[in-house]
Design a protein that fits this description.
Number of strands: 94
Helix content: under 10%
Strand content: 35-45%
Largest sheet: 8 strands, mixed
Length: 1295
Amino acid sequence: MEREENREIEGDEWMKRDNKKSQTHGERDPAKDRTRDRRQAVGTVGATARGPRMALRTPSRAPLLLMGLLTTGLAQLPLSASAPRGFWALPENLTVVEGATAELQCGVHAPGSVVQWAKDGLLLGPDPRIPRFPRYRLEGDPSRGEFHLHIEACDLSDDAEYECQVGRSETGPELVSPRVILSVLVPPKVLQLTPEAGSTVTWVAGQEYVVTCVSGDAKPAPDITFFQSGQTVSDISANVNAGSQEKLFTTEATARVTPQSSDNGQLLVCEGSSPALDTPIRVSVTMNVLFPPGPPVIEWPGLDEGHVRAGQSLELLCVARGGNPPATLQWLKNGQPMSTAWGTEHAEAVARSMLVMVVRPEDHGARLSCEAHNSVSTGIQERGVTLQVTFPPSAITILGSASQSENKNVTLSCISKSSRPRVLLRWWLGWRQLVPTEEMVVDGLHGGHISMSNLTFLVRREDNGLTLTCEAFSEAFTKETFKKSLTLNVKYPAQKLWIEGPPEGQRLRAGTRVRLVCLAIGGNPEPSLTWLKDSRTVTEPRPPQEPRRVQLGSLEKSGSTFSRELILITGPSDNQAKFTCKAGQLSASTQLVVQFPPTNVTILANATALRPGDALNLTCISVSSNPPVNLSWDKEGERLESVATPPRSAPFKGSAAARSVLLRMSSRDHGHRVTCQAHSPELRETMSAFYRLNVLYPPEFLGEQVLVVTAVEQGEALLPVSVSANPAPEAFNWTFRGYRLSPAGGPRHRILSGGALQLWNVTRADDGLYQLHCQNSEGTAETLVRLDVHYAPTIRALQDPTEVNIGGSVDIVCTVDANPILPEMFSWERLGEEEEDQSLDDMEKISKGSTGRLRIHHAKLAQAGAYQCIVDNGVAPPARGLVRLVVRFAPQVEHPTPLNKVAAAGDSTSSATLHCRARGVPNIVFTWAKNGVPLDLEDPRYTEHTYHQGGVHSSLLTIANVSAAQDYALFTCTATNPLGSDHTNIQLVSISRPDPPTGLKVVSMTPYSVGLEWKPGFDGGLPQKFQIRYEALGTPGFLYMDVLPPDATTFTLTGLQPSTRYRVWLLASNALGDSGLTDKGSQIPITTPGLDEPSGEPDYQLPTEQPVGPSGLPLLPVLFAVGGLLLLSNISCVGGFLWQRRLRRLAEGISEKTETGSEEDRVRNEYEDSRWTGDQDTRSSTVSTTDVEPYYHSMKNFSPQLPPTLEEMSYLRGFTHIEEENMAFPGHLYDEVERLYAPPGAWGPIYDEVPMGPSDPSWPEETYEDTRRIYDRVAGNLDPVETDSLPFELRGHLV
């Protein structure tokens, strides 16, 4: 103990000394430390480092420090006591790259001492895992004195001084290794280049730019070098700055760069190198150096630069090489821009521009130049060429007239347009060269010359028509000739002139086509033949007439003969006219005689304003005709007597005539035509003129004026006006019932321009007399027009409902409002689904005025229902009215069988519901009796609910806590109304095995299957299921098949063989047992058809006899059968005992379940989701059937459903004495006769105490519910229970 205490005191003193030394070492100069760190980074150390890079070694000169022992409790090293105490391996300075692994060596001979490491004076502790330093651990074998410090993933925090310390022990004092430095090199991660790295910088060649590159944090500071197009940049200045953390540095280097054109597209690179990097890091920018292009060059096509020919298409190419951006080229002409289009080949830095121009004479001396420059050009570089244009004269002109009379001189001058060089001129007459009288040359346009030549010579008749040519030529235009020609015209007169045409004095009919031809011989110029009519020049009319009466031909030449024709369509003006043809001083004439009808027939009147009774004198004048004509008068085909008047002078050298007629006027003459006819017997032509009589008279209504107009209500009506007046009526005024209709129109009327009155949206209030008043300046007139408005019938009175006792008589009366009233507009329909229900043959139809009657004699129940009164007077729509005929009759209770059954458990915990349904009108009152004694409904065990739906009435008697002793009895339901009563009996029994199904029959058959159908029997008050047993005759053994779903009444038995006789049984079973095989209706023999026989609906087969032959069975199957029977008998004995016990348990569970529900829930659940049960229902009910076999229907979940609408009603039959009359019950027709139809969705609230089915209010036939829901309150848990587990009182033995 004393040794441990001394050791503890010595340890405390050692730790104090160690902390003091740590503080002394912690006060070093940071500047000296950074200098030492940079020196150590480039030296070598003796320690080793493991990592991705090799470590550098540096000598260690750290002094040895003595430290005390640690506190008591540190681990003792198992070293040999005989070994000398001291270090056998010392740590050395180590340099590693960030992220590498470092290991500092420490090997000691110090048995029983504690070894640990210190980092910058901080003791790390002797624990090999070194707490709080997850990357630190001690490596090596402590038993061998190995305490190497291993550091994973070195980072800057590991850059420190480390020493290995050995605690003091019994074998000697403490030991401290020399301090070594672990230097962690941090490589630069990024270089930041300004401008931004990876970008493209645009510089101008020859200008100086400054580029800055800054490294990221690193240790030591990296070196930065710049490369320009692969060459080192010498002008660099660098600064080393402190980094974001202690011991980290950044280097900022600046370079001055002067780019040249050769640097375009090259890289300027900033490269950072460091001992911590295997490969220097680089960033760069791409230099886009802008520099001017080279001088342009013009490529001239040919050797003689600048010389071109006018009209030539000149193509000059200008090329400029180099430049960034490439050169922009522009063509100029005399300093003015011509073309600014150019193309660039970037790969070769060449710009090209093609100038295409057509050289013109005015381009002579023009200077074409090409300029090249770009955005960095200091000036514009240009190359030019001056054009020397050669051009011929554009035209040769001859001045003077080439037409002259014979034997006279002609003087002409020939002048050329400007040309370069000048041209020479010479004259030709035909093939003869003429000598000019004078020639000269003057300066022309565009540096050219104009040549002139004058010519004078004497013309003769034989020179007429020769070509006179002036020709220009030059050595510069050897391949071209320039000339101008004229035709010499020598004038001389014609020799003869005459006319060809019809002979003079021949009579020509007006309209005859006459051809006159004028002919002349010789003469130059060609004689201009001119036609004259009575000294006036004949010309064609413009625009041409159709048909043209005058056609003047053109001058035609045939040899030396000239002709010109004149074609006439003769008219009155041509009669005895003189036609003359002139050619110069020569002339010829002819005269025509033309016969024509009157040129104009005119009628003159002595008055303009005529009124009835006035006298009118008309004179007819025929202006001119050849020969004279006869005049006559008629009025609308009636010839009039006339008087001739003295003749007058007539134009066109014809004859005139005149006749007069006197007329007395009336209003009927207005608009009539009085016609004058001028007839020429010789020409057999007649001309007519008429005078239309304008008689002024007041309005007069015509005979066709409509006095009665018929219209349909809401349609349009047009009251026409047939009135005659002159002048036309000034106003049409309509008056209705003393009120004047606005002439401007109204919301429902307008007066048309002819006076007719148009009405729309006509109503029956518009019916009546309309008075029309017409007026003009001559007087007035009035008339009456009746508007008869027809409208669709509307039923005003309909007795609904109409009631009658059965066997009585009644009228269904239908009164309407309609126009028109037709005798046969009433018709009646009976609403029903079947055609026989719609017949009205036994009813009398009576129609009188606006009232129609359907009379019914000896009313029958079959006649009850909905009737429709239809009234159609021809105006749509027909009126329809529904009326219900209610036939009142005594109650008729449904009697499905002589005795109904309802099953319930008599354990005083269950309940039963008895359903009694009857038909009758008016409403029925139900009473109940048990075993003939009236039932006391005040007893809380009995609850009755009564429902009335039309003529169908239901009473539901619920018996709570059914007791076998008290309630298994015969209940009598009696239905009573004022017309009588009826009753039925319902037997309440215990639950039992089901009755056998009946009516088993085959509905389909194939060689391998048979379809079966049956009617279920009474289910015994429990859910029942069916099983089919069948055998192949002649083959021992039976086969069984369960029917699925359990409540199905049809099933297809498969797995049969063709042409095989079978016998099939159908069994019903519930939790109490099966129905047995004694009933004949639950078995049937069948024979499957062969493969070659048709399948389908089979004929009913008689039982099949056993096959004739030996019936012995093999011995082995008989032994097996006997053994199986013995085994089954033993099992049945054991099962009987188990059956008794499980029935008791089930009864207890059922009693508890029944007592949990309230009476309200019981009533609701008993009536939910029920359906109308037809004659094939599988559960107990009071609905009767007409089948021979009795059917029993459960009342457990019965809920009265409302009958469907008239269109959906399928009438149920089953009443013994009513069925003969085809009685139908249309449901709501007997619903207290309070409303015609119930609105949709109205059935729900009527029976809010007993919820109805979800949607269908009908009682569909052949619809069966899952029997499990019916008896869910009595045997809800019976499905998984064995038959023998029911208690005794539920097995039906109490009755």
